[in-house]
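Q: Please design a sequence for this.
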């Protein structure tokens, strides 16, 4: 296995363990996580805070990878399906108790064994509709 696929596989394992600290440790200190709707998480601390909040709101979060594509150099793409129930506050949203199933993908740039850039693509509108938010 290559270094890129090793890091992405460790990312999936930490996400499925709902371990924000382990996830954040996979990112470089200056890493960026960019969501398709324009939200930018800048730096490992911001990324850790995001995942801490995400797993508090969705304590049964699970992510099933179904494709991992190794690109040229230090790039990889992970296609996934996630599911969870909205059981705690998330950002400024109150929990609805509703569950969702969502497909998406992440594009990762891995430098020196750490994630330097992570772009996340998903249908946020569909996600929010399933949770009863819009």
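A: Design:
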């Amino acid at each position: 296995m290559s270094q890129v696929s090793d890091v992405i596989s460790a990312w999936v394992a930490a996400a499925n363990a709902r371990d924000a600290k382990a996830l954040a440790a996979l990112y470089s200190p200056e890493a960026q996580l960019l969501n398709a709707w324009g939200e930018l998480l800048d730096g490992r601390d911001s990324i850790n805070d995001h995942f801490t909040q995400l797993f508090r709101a969705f304590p049964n979060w699970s992510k099933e990878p179904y494709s991992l594509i190794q690109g040229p150099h230090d790039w990889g793409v992970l296609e996934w399906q996630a599911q969870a129930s909205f059981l705690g506050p998330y950002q400024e949203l109150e929990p609805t108790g509703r569950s969702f199933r969502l497909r998406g993908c992440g594009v990762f740039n891995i430098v020196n064994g750490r994630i330097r850039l992570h772009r996340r693509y998903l249908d946020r509108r569909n996600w929010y509709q399933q949770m009863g938010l819009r």
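Q: Thanks. Anything notable?
A: The longest helix spans residues 3-16. The beta strands are 27-35, 40-42, 62-70, 75-85, 99-111, 114-122.
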